[in-house]
């Protein structure tokens, strides 16, 4: 992806004032003791010097590379995953929607039993 594409994607998804965690020096996977800012963006993203996608954030005087900025989903917009409910009304664990790789064996069993218990449909 080009730097301009990264900027365009960022700006289409995250308006100015988006809550972010910014890592001015290095990301935590590269330096666990590095500076971490919990802040908001104060500009749109742009390409700096024709080579680096950056954004400016509150509380820091320099721009920060987009690769060192993670958007934060505010708690008031968090939507928990939907619960899977069997045909008999019993709830299953949240990760059952949809059932797939990583779903627990119990969830798979519920889906299998629903398929067996499902009434046959008739075109008449």
Task: Describe this protein's structure.
The chain is α+β, with helices and mostly antiparallel strands. It folds into two domains: 3-75; 80-118, no CATH class. Helices cover 19% and strands 16% of the residues. Strands 2-1-6 form a three-stranded antiparallel β-sheet, with no helix packed on it. A hairpin with an 8-residue loop joins strand 4 and strand 5 (64-65).
Measured as a percent range, the helix fraction is 10-25%
Numbering strands along the chain, what is their spatial order in the largest sheet?
Answer: 2-1-6
Number of strands: 6
Radius of gyration: 22 Å
Report the principal-axis shape. elongated
Give the percentage of residues in beta strands: 15-25%
Mean pLDDT: 77
Key traits:
single chain, 124 residues, alpha+beta, 2 domains, three-stranded antiparallel beta sheet, 2 helices, 6 strands, elongated
């Amino acid at each position: 992806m080009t730097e301009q594409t990264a900027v365009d994607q960022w700006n289409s998804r995250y308006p100015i004032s988006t809550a972010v965690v910014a890592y001015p020096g290095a990301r935590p996977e590269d330096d666990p003791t590095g500076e971490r800012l919990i802040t908001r963006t104060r500009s749109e993203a742009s390409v700096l010097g024709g080579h680096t996608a950056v954004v400016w954030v509150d509380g820091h005087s320099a721009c920060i590379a987009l690769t060192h900025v993670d958007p934060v989903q505010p708690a008031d917009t968090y939507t928990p995953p939907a619960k899977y409910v069997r045909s008999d009304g019993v709830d299953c664990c949240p990760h059952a929607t949809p059932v797939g790789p990583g779903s627990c064996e119990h969830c798979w069993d519920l889906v299998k039993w629903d398929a067996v218990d499902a009434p046959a449909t008739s075109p008449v």
